[in-house]
Write a structure and sequence with these properties.
Number of helices: 4
Strand order of the largest sheet: 3-2-1-4
Order of helices and strands: HEEEHHEH
Shape: globular
Number of strands: 4
């Protein structure tokens, strides 16, 4: 019962935040999702309903580097790779969407990796 309440609470927080922020082509939304085993990040243009960049700890570029995809080190590498792919598309500024998670641990590591890669938010 506790686990489902935690998940439902995150979904409510995520919907509340999504009502306030949105991504555009000039400044897309950096959306974060974390599971127990992996980290996922994508840049989304909400006006066109398009995903511009998608990176996860399961990406072929990262599989050889990462032993475990669900830890802080993997989250930082995912953030760096999403920043690298965004820079290749000419995107420098994004809106960070933490997905209802606390800005702590893996979510913070992903954000720090993206900032280290050159994204501004």
């Amino acid at each position: 019962m506790l686990a489902s309440t935690k998940v439902e609470g995150r979904q409510v927080r995520h919907l509340r935040v999504r009502g306030r922020i949105g991504g555009t082509a000039a400044r897309p939304r950096l959306s974060v999702f974390r599971s127990l085993k992996h980290m996922y990040a994508q840049l989304i243009d909400d006006e066109a309903a398009r995903t511009l960049v998608f990176v996860s700890s399961q990406s072929p570029e990262l599989r050889a580097k990462l032993k475990n995809g669900g830890n802080v080190a993997a989250a930082k590498v995912v953030g760096e790779l999403v920043a690298q792919k965004a820079k290749a598309l000419g995107i420098e500024r994004v809106v960070f969407d933490r997905g209802g998670y606390q800005f702590h641990g893996r979510v913070k590591a992903l954000a720090d990796g993206a900032r280290g890669g050159g994204l501004i938010f």
